[in-house]
Specification:
The protein is an alpha/beta fold and 282 residues long. Helix content is 34%, strand content 20%. A six-stranded mixed β-sheet has the order 2-1-3-5-6-4, sandwiched between helices. Strands 9-8-7-10-11-12 form a six-stranded parallel β-sheet, with helices on both faces. Strand 8, helix 6 and strand 9 form a beta-alpha-beta unit. It is globular. Bound molecules: NADP nicotinamide-adenine-dinucleotide phosphate. The site of NADP nicotinamide-adenine-dinucleotide phosphate has 26 residues, from helix 4, helix 5 and helix 9.
């Protein structure tokens, strides 16, 4: 490892990103001399600016909108980048650019009831996934690997999503693409997952489904939103006494796995605790 590990995150926008505070806390906990900075790159400047980043950093995270574009720069991809077609972590080792997807791990590790840390029983169950973008693909691969029986993916443009998903090796006959509309029904769904940006930023006061659709869910359905902090969808679900999970623990776990890839250190409970606290305090 170099004397000082140079790390960061690329994406646009980045001002809201909690990764710097989380990663700095993780580095401190692991007693590693390192820095972690934001590098905001607009799509049109990507080809020019990424060269600089690749030459100067030892590793970095990639967020919206560069997770797919970065793949053509990789010398080596982990299996998940191949399967999902999106890369959110890079490590530069001996001049080689290695790409990883830690969103998959982050999502799986976050699938516990927040109050008891008990694992969600999902094998053989039915899921509804809203959206089919980069994060949704990592979630979809995870749901397939967890053995769900049926996964309905709700999108606003079926043709576009079909094209984007068709190269994914995890696509199988248990996955159905459906139109997301006010008429969509979510019968017998064990987990409903929002992976659209509805509920964030300028869409903060919106929900990806109508209140009456939320009310029609079975009382034991878990409502999961990849966004953090708690969205309107989760607040309304809680009023209906449904169990909810927000995107914070997915972010913490994907970040911890990235830090482990950069430093070679194992992820222990203490690391998760300090990164979670840094997330909450930032
Ligand atoms: P993305 O690649 O841009 O995909 C967004 C998806 O949502 C696409 O399927 C898009 O459909 C759909 N969508 C966008 N606006 C919509 C609307 N108004 N109505 C219906 N569908 C809409 O983004 P992403 O990287 O997957 O990220 C999605 C969300 O997950 C973001 O809010 C991000 O912050 C969050 N996220 C959280 C974590 C975490 O660790 N917690 C990790 C990754 C992402 P079209 O293709 O038709 O545009």
């Amino acid at each position: 490892m170099p004397n000082k590990l140079k790390l960061g995150i690329i994406g646009c926008p980045l001002s809201h990103s909690k990764s710097p505070q989380m990663q700095k806390a993780g580095l401190k906990y692991l007693n590693i001399n390192g820095e972690y900075e934001r590098y905001e790159i607009q799509t049109e400047n990507f080809p020019h600016e990424i060269k600089n980043i690749l030459e100067n950093l030892d590793g970095f995270n990639i967020t919206i909108p560069h997770k797919e574009q970065i793949i053509s720069y990789l010398n080596q991809k982990d299996t998940l980048v191949e399967r999902i077609g999106a890369c959110n972590t890079i490590r530069i080792k001996d001049g080689k650019i290695l790409g990883f997807n830690t969103d998959y791990h982050g999502f799986i590790k976050s699938l516990t009831y927040p109050e008891s840390q008990e694992k969600l029983p999902l094998e053989g169950k039915k899921a509804a996934l809203l959206g089919a973008g980069g994060a949704a693909k990592a979630v979809l691969a995870a749901l397939v690997d967890l053995g769900l029986d049926q996964i309905d993916v709700y999108v606003r443009n079926i043709k576009k999503s079909q094209q984007s998903l068709e190269s994914c090796d995890f696509m199988n006959s248990n996955i159905n693409l459906k139109l997301l509309s006010t008429e969509s029904s979510f019968e017998e769904v064990s987990i409903l997952i929002n992976s659209t940006p509805i509920g964030q930023g300028r869409l903060e006061n919106s929900m990806p489904i109508e209140l009456n659709q939320l009310k029609s869910l079975d009382s034991d359905t878990v409502v999961y939103d990849l966004i953090y902090p708690k969205t309107k969808l989760l607040r309304e679900a809680e009023k209906l006494k449904l169990r909810t999970i927000d995107g914070s623990m997915m972010l913490v776990h994907q970040g911890a796995q990235a830090l482990s890839l950069w430093t070679g250190k194992d992820i222990d409970k203490g690391l998760i605790k300090v990164m979670k606290e840094a997330f909450e305090n930032g």
